[in-house]
Amino acid sequence: MTTNELIEPRAHAAPSAPRQRGLMLLLLVANASMLAVYMGVGSVLLPLQIAAVDPAHKVAILGLVGGVSAVFATAFNPIAGALSDRTGRRNPWILGGALASLAGLAFLSTVRTAVMLGIGWCLVQATMNVYQAAVTAVVPDRIPPSRRGTASALVGLALPIGGTVGVLIASQTSDSITTGYLTFGALVAGAAVLLTCSFRDVPRPAPAPAVPRRQRLAAFLSALSHHDFRWAFIGRALMVLGYFSVIGYQLYILDDHIVLPSGLEPAAAMAILTPVSMAAMAVSTVVGGLLSDRWNRRKVFVGASAALAGLVTVVPVLSPTWTGMLVFSALNGLAFGCFMAVDTAVVTLVLPRAEDAARDMGVLNIANAGPQIIAPFVASAIVTAFGGYSALFLVGGALSLLGALAVLPIRSVR
User: Fold this and answer.
1) Are 279 and 333 in contact (CB under 8 A)?
2) Cα 362 from chain centroid?
3) pLDDT tens per residue, range 75-108
4) Do 28 and 193 meet the contact criterion of CB atoms below 8 Å apart?
5) Which pTM value belongs to this model?
6) Contact, 356 vs 9, CB < 8 A?
7) Residue 136 pLDDT greater than 90, yes or no
8) 209 is a domain residue
9) Is residue 12 included in any domain, yes or no?
């Protein structure tokens, strides 16, 4: 899965206030269903399938499948976004992406080899990112600037809601993989039908004249020459890499590293840990954002939350128990939620030029998407090389601590 920022210069034909509220609620549903697929399938069903196909090499296979599929996700998102921009319509891409994902998930439920699992998950990632690109564009298209903060907050809640729902569905259907995949496909298709039937497309202006590719690339990357933006980019990349290196292997960690209570299976344990982590994340996202506004201090929240994320990885190493994992999940959720909320505010304050805000926030998306591509390969290599998950926790923690240090050189934000 990739993260996409919701910043654009203006909205087109903004609906009335009651319609805006209805639209934002449906956007929450659309984004939550998408994240349910990413979390439920990517964190539970797919690892279970891989373990069933080749238990001896499951770590390496999950790393390879996760890394290659993330490349597909990263590539298809901007391509689909550009195509929907060019056609001037979002609904066909939302509905088409969701229905194609339903077909991809149905196909994935039928395969029984590692190669076909990889192909199936790449197809799902590609089609889900067609859906994601179009859904993301609805906010700048239809929500006026004065309401973007509320819309972004609601969309932000999609992660804890969708992540929790996704893992709960996956854990309940872990004994029937086909049922699980079809449930997720129906969920995202239903959300797409609901959104597209409730809100029709609105006319959009013609796309700007084409700019030479080399000139576009130079302009796109120019923000990284700005001192403060560059350090914010580095800190985000390190934090995301540390987080997803550990989280992507959580099912295998529960199976092979943590001593679970008698009768508690790894999939069922995920169904407990994920709501704990996501609830903590939702709380710290709101509280961290509000307090950083009230005190007009950003760096201390970003640095402290990244440092906390680094330190708590020691807990499951010293105490590879169910209690230790619960403590880790709660504190890690608190740390990551606060970091992402306040760090986004930091980035908006260090943008080189206000008129290039959308483009430069797109650059920041590389710091979100790139580490998610690398994380499965990094995690697989660490676990294979060191023969266990303790090293993975420690490396993930070290990356987060480096992310905390990266905020120190930023000069223009307190």
Assistant:
1) yes
2) 15
3) 887 788 778 878 878 899 999 999 999 999 999 9
4) no
5) 0.80
6) no
7) no
8) no
9) yes
